[in-house]
Amino acid sequence: MSLTLQEVGRLLYGVSPEAFGEQVRFVVVGSDIEAPPGYENQWSVLSPDGGVFESSWATGYEMSQTTALVIFAGAPSDEQDACFQGLSKRLREHPLAAPPVLIVPLVGQASFPEVREWVERLIRNSIVDDAVWGAPSGFGLALAVQAKLRNVSMQLDRLAEEVDKRTDAAEQKNQLLHAMEYMRWQ
Q1: Residue 172's pLDDT is what?
Q2: Are 45 and 33 in contact (CB under 8 A)?
Q3: What angle is formed at CA 142 by the lines to CA 144 and CA 43, rounded to 5 degrees?
Q4: What is the pLDDT of residue 49?
Q5: Taking Cα atoms as reference points, which of 86, 80, 140, 79 lies closest to residue 105?
Q6: DSSP H or E run through 159
Q7: Residue closest to 42 by CA, chosen among 115, 99, 89, 82
Q8: Residue 97: which residues within 8 A CB-CB, separation 6 or more?
Q9: pLDDT value at position 167?
Q10: What CA–CA distance (Å, rounded) separates 42 from 27?
Q11: Which ranges of the chain have pLDDT less than 50?
Q12: Of 27, 65, 20, which is closest to residue 44 (Cα–Cα)?
């Protein structure tokens, strides 16, 4: 099932792109849907070959200026999987510049367990970072995206702290080894 302009328009009705945060980019998977009014500069369509990145946005600098990708996806399909594989490949080309990726799954006619399993697989395979469930619309969607981005940011901060701790411990171990070696030869 591909998405329609009405479905995406319903989700974004009454809210501007700025409500989601600065430099958030919106992506529709596998459907050639034009941007809703006001979203033209932050709108992309993801094709199976990763075509969203054919623009100048593909450069590491432009990608690093984006705070998040909010992806609207329909029901699971081979086309959707190919689109996400292309996305993953393109993001891996600039790993330090790649923004967090949030998916807004639109269940439609698909069974919810099937969609949930598919999205969890995308998260497990590090293709997307998190999902916004329940298809909130308007400011509810903007708040849900902001909350998910804060959650991803907190996880990254915790990981950075853990890396710092382990780096400090390894450094201290090296210093102790050097001190022991020095004492042994004195």
Answers
A1: 94
A2: yes
A3: 120
A4: 59
A5: 80
A6: helix 139-184
A7: 99
A8: 60, 61, 63, 64
A9: 93
A10: 8
A11: 1, 53-54
A12: 27
- Report the Cα 159 to chain-centroid distance in Å: 17
The pLDDT score that the predictor gives to residue 162 is: 94
Whole-angstrom Cα distance, residue 75 to residue 111?
A: 9
User: In which residue are the tokens 């594989």 written?
Assistant: 85
> Are 33 and 2 in contact, with CB atoms under 8 Å apart?
no
- In 3-state terms, what secondary structure has residue 113? helix
* Residue with tokens 């940011």, as numbered in its chain: 153
Look at residue 45 and give its three-state secondary structure. Answer: strand
User: pLDDT value at position 140?
Assistant: 87
Q: Is 139 helix (H, G, I), strand (E, B) or coil?
A: helix
Distance CA 17, CA 47 (A): 22
Greatest Cα pair distance, the chain, in angstroms, is: 79
CA distance 45 to 53: 9
Instruction: Strands of the chain (E only): list them.
Output: 24-29, 43-46, 68-73, 101-105, 130-131
The H or E element spanning position 54 is none
